[in-house]
What we know:
Strand content: 5-15%
CATH architecture of the largest domain: 3-Layer(aba) Sandwich
CATH superfamily of the largest domain: Glycogen Phosphorylase B
Shape: globular
Number of domains: 2
Helix content: 40-55%
Strand order of the largest sheet: 2-1-3-4-5-6
Radius of gyration: 21 Å
Oligomer: single chain
Amino acid sequence: MRILYSRPLTSPQRTCLPPDVRQIEDEANLSMVFAKRFPFLGRRSDLWAGLWLALRLWKSRRRFDAVVTGRYGEWFAVLQSVLPFGRRPHLLLDVEWLAVHTELWRIRLNRWLHRRIIQSATKTQVFCHVEAHNYARYFGVEESRFIWIPYCTDAPTAPTDVPAADYLFTSGTHQRDYVTLFEAVRDLPVELRVAAPRAAFAGMNIPANVHIAGTLSTHEYWRTLAGARFIVLSLRPDVIRRPGVITYVGALRMGKCVVVNDPEGASSYIDHQETGFLVEPASAAQLRRQICDLLQHPEIVERVAANAAQAARERFAAARYFCDIKQFLEDRLLHQ
């Protein structure tokens, strides 16, 4: 099977693609190129980048059996529905929908446009099972339009030269619930290190045992994560696309015990008490109890971390990425 591929922003870097996969674009690079080359476009540069990619994909698709893109392939999905001759199966990956609009006409336009994209693509990937339900309900489409393909990462395995230290670790700012997390760790006899821009915490009541490390380099980030006793993520519960997946899957891949207060989303990756811990959202008391229990029982942390490493070693590794994609496309083509 020949696949025309536009690499999504969050997909693993692969220096050697399978022989039957041709990469036509790297969407992370495409975004930066359009922003630099056409600065006058401003916030519309992503729109024009997507339109340009749609035309390239549409012209090149005839030599391939299927097309796989990230979110920049949304306009290609619509283009194939408008001009359906020569249509190819299209798997749309890495969508991150729901810009916040307040005007009624923008809300209606947003829903109409995304409903058209979803119905035009063969399938749209979700990172967590619950996202399929959320998107289907919000946009008014069938849940069967979506497929769960687990996020895979090229995160390194745990470095052997990083000694375990007496701190907890968390990171990120996107849809994080730091109010809950800070209340959960306040006055505990352990430091919480946070890898996130300091400006994001302006005006917040930061506990004395919380250290804002700022933005770390990739190398520093993974070493800091590897040295932590365990990882804690507090995420917003009132969102459709579940946040934190990239962070906790990377931690699982490194063999770290992870506590996440998003059971609806994280249950797609974590087996509670086996490969990690799931806590109810927005509950500082429950999150604190779980953290305290793990601090008092390091043997549980060690056991769960070992389980996480074993489960994630292959299932969420970059090598599985194209296996999952090709399996879906082969099944799809066989049943056409």
